[in-house]
Design brief:
Layout (H helix, E strand, L loop, with lengths): L3 H44 L2 E4 L2 E4 L3 H8 L1 H21 L2 H10 L4 H12 L6 H12 L4 H8 L16 H7 L7 H12 L3 H9 L4 H12 L1 H17 L2 H6 L11 H10 L4 H34 L1
Antiparallel strand pairs: 1-2
Helix pairs in contact: 1-15, 2-15, 3-8, 3-12, 4-9, 12-15, 14-15
Length: about 300
């Protein structure tokens, strides 16, 4: 019969072997993440301090970052981005939330399932296809001008993506009615996690539908709202395929965004160092907001545990 030290040593050995197997199983994914994510990110950060020529990379110090402050096109792109982000934050905090609340209150399970399916199904459509459809809608002979002509408003038809005053609003209007399948599902799952006892107590206390939303549902899905607001900001900081396909940043740079300016700097101007500097600034912004969100989340959790 084995004594206690031998039994403990056997358990420790088995635990080490199990840990080794886990590490070995995780190793391929870590290698791939390092190869396709961390290596390009670190390389981009290093390139942001260089000027790339046909002879190779030449150290340029902070020259690329100094150029950022004098780049009027980049500065204008941040102004455009701020308007788009504010609009989409308002949208993500209202439209999908309203749809989720209304669906959550449906009595008929079959109707609820059918509506949920209709809201989620557009997620399977590739984003590029959706953007191309909207580009046709905004064209001179596209859907929007056809509709305006049918109702007798030919006088206001125009090339919507060619108007400097309207192009940014046209981009914001893409995805109307702005339900967002993923946003809708996150809100709906948050509502479904609320205890039924709270709703029963509210009925006993005579709480109406509007008061129920502001007193029960809205406070209990604040975490989902905070998460979606953060994801929306991060998403639009990184996104540039929408203005790229619709307008390529034009007319002029009326619809330019920082991500598209970075793309142009690298792919058209072949200025890898300057494009990498723009990408580094965007990464810092995204990382800072993520850290802020995590800190606020910890404070919220600490407050709830008191």
């Amino acid at each position: 019969m084995m004594d206690k030290p031998q039994v403990l040593a056997g358990h420790r050995s088995a635990r080490r072997m199990r840990d080794v197997r886990i590490y070995l199983l995780m190793l391929p994914s870590l290698v791939l993440i390092s190869l396709f994510f961390y290596y390009p990110a670190v390389s981009g950060f290093i390139y942001s301090f260089t000027r790339v020529t046909t002879r190779g990379a030449v150290w340029a110090g902070l020259a690329n970052y100094q150029r950022l402050l004098a780049d009027t096109r980049l500065i204008a792109s941040f102004g455009n981005l701020a308007q788009i982000v504010v609009f989409n934050v308002i949208v993500v905090a209202t439209m999908p939330l309203m749809a989720a609340v209304l669906m959550f209150r449906m009595r008929n399970p079959r109707a609820q399932y059918a509506f949920r399916l209709m809201y989620v199904f557009p997620m399977v459509v590739p984003m590029v296809v959706m953007i191309i459809i909207w580009r046709w809608i905004y064209s001179l002979d596209g859907g929007l001008n056809i509709l305006l002509s049918l109702v007798g408003l030919e006088s206001i038809t125009r090339a919507w993506l060619g108007d400097r005053q309207l192009v940014l609003y046209a981009i914001m209007f893409v995805n109307f009615p702005w339900m967002g399948g993923l946003n809708f599902l996150i809100y709906l799952s948050g509502l479904q996690s609320i205890s039924e006892e709270l709703f029963d107590a509210a009925i006993v206390d005579g709480v109406g539908p509007v008061s129920r939303f502001f007193l029960i549902e809205l406070p209990l899905i604040r975490d989902q709202i905070r998460l979606l607001v953060l994801l929306t900001v991060i998403f639009w900081l990184q996104r540039f395929e929408l203005p790229l396909i619709l307008t390529d940043g034009g007319p002029g740079w009326a619809s330019m965004v920082p991500g598209l300016r970075m793309y142009h700097s690298i792919s058209r101007d072949f200025n890898i160092g300057y494009g990498s500097a723009i990408g580094t600034v965007l990464f810092i912004l995204v990382f800072g907001m993520t850290m802020l969100q995590m800190r606020l989340g910890r404070r919220r959790a600490a407050a709830d545990n008191r």
